[in-house]
Amino acid sequence: MEKNPHDDTGPVHVPLGHIVANEKWRGSQLAQEMQGKIKLIFEDGLTPDFYLSNRCCVLYVTEADLVAGNGYRKRLVRVRNSSNLQGIVVVEKTRISEQYFPALQKFTVLDLGMVLLPVASQMEASCLIIQLVQEQTKEPSKNPLLRKKRALLLSEPSLLRTVQQIPGVGKVKAPLLLQKFPSIQQLSNASIWELEQVVGQAVAKQIHAFFTQPR
């Protein structure tokens, strides 16, 4: 498989309908759930965990990765800084790891501007990744993954969940906010006054603090 040996975030040849997976996932529950539904090709030395196409990849952050600290960040930054790849971050959000999720959420969505998709388990993740591969088989004009400006459209359910995690927002206010501010970038740049028009003063201050407090 042709790949620049000096740049393990470079494009990898991915046959249509296949996934190129990092060797570390061989034998895992995640890989076993996907096998039989899609063909996996295992490769050593990849920075991403899964290549869905030549230029789209998944970075998978496990529950253990989150609990262990910020070690996962280096991988995310390498892919984010690569001109060759569009990275999607899939994270295991469980009862054990949920306390660490807000920091990951801020870093991934706000600092790096990457798509973040939380999952509850590797079984759920396998279904999600297969769906993402199916997106890759669409014509480029119909595939939101291949249109950078619309990358967040892919993650509308995830975007909704992300906004729901902001203190004071929850399931009721999140859709209202996204109607007014359809991207994280717009929401983070909104003034307290603009936010008040949607959610009231108290919650507006909480949202504003969430985005402006030092990281």
From TrEMBL:
Single GO MF annotation: chromatin binding
Residues of the Fanconi anemia core complex-associated protein 24 pseudonuclease domain: 12-134
Subcellular location: Nucleus
Ranges for domain DisA/LigA helix-hairpin-helix motif: 166-214
Keywords: DNA damage, DNA repair, DNA-binding, Nucleus
Pfam families: HHH_2 (PF12826), PND (PF17949)
GO biological process: interstrand cross-link repair
Main localisation: nucleus
Tagged with keyword DNA-binding: yes
Quaternary assembly: Belongs to the multisubunit FA complex composed of FANCA, FANCB, FANCC, FANCE, FANCF, FANCG, FANCL/PHF9, FANCM and FAAP24. Interacts with FANCM.
Function in brief: Plays a role in DNA repair through recruitment of the FA core complex to damaged DNA. Regulates FANCD2 monoubiquitination upon DNA damage. Induces chromosomal instability as well as hypersensitivity to DNA cross-linking agents, when repressed. Targets FANCM/FAAP24 complex to the DNA, preferentially to single strand DNA.
Protein name (Swiss-Prot/TrEMBL): Fanconi anemia core complex-associated protein 24
Origin species: Rhinopithecus roxellana
